[in-house]
Design goal:
The chain is of the alpha/beta class. It is built from 21 helices and 24 strands.
């Protein structure tokens, strides 16, 4: 089979027109690398794709013409048959009462030919929330200063942010991804480059809040922490060293002195999160034992093996494995406490968590799911106006064939890991549910290709998990959006992500409030864009030029944009153009959620992250200018409440 035929079989689109209007053709050697990295994708005989049954509105499935009735069918759940039947028509009408979830469907024709197909029974739509309109306080958690943390914001600070958000009238707190990173490289701190999306970053733990910890266990912690709290940037390496000392001391104390209730709670957590938690703990121990990425480990450990992991748990590393599990239990408990506090305070969303688009290829998820995650391919984006050579984000993503073989469970597990703590999540680069732009390792980002994903099945899995966890789902649908994508996404109840700075017509005029969709989160900017103070002062343009980057905008274009902002505000009877005036405009949109960044409320000029830089700019390191307990006094509460009156918990009081 030639390369193009293989590409069609695996859903690889090697020719496309990019955002610059240029026809892109993937080079044969790059295309071969992509095809070699993808597992085989089943071509089904009786159906056209994995079967999705939307329980209320679509209880029938049309069969492909290749099937010759009558067809016998049966649905199995982990090998147990839960329903069976026969159809003499090219349609199957499913029985009532199928539980939401992930199954295998076996179809057998009159000639005895059978095939097994993944099947998802999903709700009609994602959970939609039970409120009209609200707003969220958006924060980079690591950036929070307090007089008690150990050098970066932690989960106790998060509880303080929840109380602050309640005081301001918000419905919750939006956070950067909280995924676990690599503990031996704390300076690699991008929350969007995780070791795993299934577990939490231990550096957000408040060590002093662990019941078994006491100050005498780490006598110099208070003095070191005070020093670490100084300065404008998070000192990740020194902070991590202190925090890991504290966590180990707390664990040793837990082992010798924990109450029976605490021990039982720990064992319950381990049982509830098994087998993924025990496998993750084994991976972390192995990662520290062997040098290099997992594919260079001894052959016996290059793939997860339950029997070998069970042996590891009984050997000399038993206590170290238990330590990793203890740390995850602690992080989970502290994050859950912040979620519970938001619920107690009557917040209608609580925590809004971000989910990264992929994982590091040498991390746990890629080791654990080698069929469903392609480590040789990096998710990225083709050339466009802002990135004329394309983008390679260096992250491994899911692939269609592997997910179908695993009945989409790895994808569902990833969603559930964040939804268990959240009232809303944002899926970064949600376009990847339909197609991913993949760049093979060793090639430049303009030599990637689009790979089709099982869109309907992935949307069904999102709806399943959303309903199960009562969690709103927002899709970051920025960029070049395929025709009909947003309509399909909205049909499944996934909200759009609308950034005011991008919501302009072809002439550069800001769109009016009636342009914004109701089922959407609207925001002024993102962590990758200028803050409002930076935008108004041209600070972002100066910063990028100082770094040798093309800001993509001239000073005159910025002056024009400032004038057009004044224009749209005046059209809505808003005479000033300060931050609160813009928030008043955004509050009038029909979009059900508004996110307001804490950096904007505090007048911060520099943005958290400048795409295209690594060491040139302190990405993901900058602290807020004031401590948590002083923030309310630095915000114009009267102006904020007036601006958000229509959607505030406090009703503007």
């Amino acid at each position: 089979m030639d390369l193009l035929a293989q590409a069609r079989t695996k859903g690889v689109q090697s020719e496309f027109v990019d955002a610059l209007g240029k026809l892109r053709v993937t080079a044969p050697e790059a295309l071969k690398s992509i095809l070699d990295a993808l597992p085989e994708k089943r071509v089904y005989r009786f159906v056209s794709a994995p079967v999705v049954v939307r329980a209320l509105g679509h209880p029938r499935t049309e069969l492909a013409a290749l099937g010759v009735p009558p067809l016998q069918w049966k649905i199995t759940d982990n090998g147990t048959v839960i329903a069976r039947g026969e159809t003499r028509e090219p349609v199957i009408a499913w029985p009532d009462g199928l539980a939401l979830g992930y199954y295998r469907l076996t179809l057998t024709d009159a000639g005895g030919v059978s095939e097994e197909v993944p099947m998802i029974v999903a709700p009609e739509r994602c959970f939609g929330g039970d409120f009209d309109r609200g707003w969220l306080l958006a924060v980079q958690l690591y950036s929070v200063r307090s007089d008690r943390n150990w050098g970066m914001g932690d989960f106790t600070d998060l509880a303080g942010l929840v109380r602050l958000a309640k005081q301001l009238g918000a419905d919750g707190v939006g956070l950067n991804p909280l995924h676990v990173l690599f503990d031996d490289h704390p300076a690699d701190c991008s929350p969007y480059s995780p070791n795993s999306r299934l577990f939490l970053n231990p550096l957000y733990i408040d060590v002093e809040a662990i019941p078994e910890f006491s100050a005498e266990l780490v006598p110099d912690a208070a003095a070191i922490a005070a020093r670490l709290r100084e300065g404008d940037r998070v000192p990740y390496t020194d902070m991590a060293a202190l925090k890991w000392r504290g966590l180990r001391a707390a664990f040793d104390s837990f082992v010798t002195s924990a109450s029976e209730a605490r021990r039982k709670a720990f064992e319950d957590f381990r049982a509830a999160r098994a087998p993924l938690l025990s496998r993750f703990a084994c991976f972390e121990v192995l990662r520290h034992r062997f040098a290099g990425p997992w594919w260079e480990w001894p052959a016996e450990w290059q793939q997860p093996d339950e029997a070998k992991c069970a042996g590891l748990r009984k050997g000399p590393d038993r206590r170290e494995i238990e330590f990793v599990e203890f740390v995850q239990w602690t992080a989970d408990s502290q994050l859950h406490a912040a979620k519970a506090l938001a619920s107690q305070l009557g917040m209608r969303v609580g925590l809004y968590l971000d989910v990264a688009v992929g994982v590091q290829s040498n991390g746990f998820d890629a080791w654990n799911e080698q069929t469903a995650i392609s480590r040789h391919l990096a998710v990225g984006a083709p050339p466009d106006v802002l990135n004329t050579i394309g983008q390679d984000w260096g992250l491994a993503g899911f692939n269609a064939g592997g997910l179908e073989a695993k009945s989409f469970v790895p994808f569902a597990d990833m969603l559930a890991a964040s939804m268990r703590h959240a009232g809303a999540i944002r899926l970064d680069h949600v376009l990847g549910l339909k197609r991913l732009y993949l760049v093979p390792r060793g090639f430049k980002p303009d030599n990637g290709a689009y790979v089709q994903m099982p869109f309907e099945a992935l949307l069904a899995a999102v709806a399943c998990e959303s309903a199960a966890h009562k969690c709103i789902v927002i899709g970051e649908d920025l960029g070049t959006v395929p025709q009909g994508f947003r309509e399909t996404m909205q049909d499944f109840g996934i909200w759009s992500y609308l950034v005011m700075m991008f919501e302009r017509d072809d002439a550069g005029h800001f769109r009016n409030v009636d342009h914004y969709r109701p089922n959407a989160l609207v925001t002024l900017n993102t962590h990758d864009l200028s803050t409002y103070a930076g935008w108004r002062s041209f600070g972002d343009l100066r910063m990028k030029r100082s770094l040798g980057l093309d800001p993509g905008e001239t000073d005159q274009a910025r002056w024009d944009a400032l004038g057009r902002l004044d224009e749209i505000l005046r059209q809505n009877g808003i005479r000033a153009n300060d931050l609160y005036s813009v928030l008043a405009f955004l509050s009038r949109t029909p979009s059900r959620l508004l996110a307001v960044s804490l950096e904007d409320l505090l007048g911060v000029v520099d943005q958290p992250n400048i795409p295209g830089t690594i060491d040139e700019h302190p990405n993901w390191r900058q602290r807020l200018p004031v401590a948590l307990d002083k923030i309310a006094s630095k915000v114009d509460l009267t102006a904020l409440r007036a601006a958000t009156r229509e959607r505030s918990l406090n009703g503007g009081s």
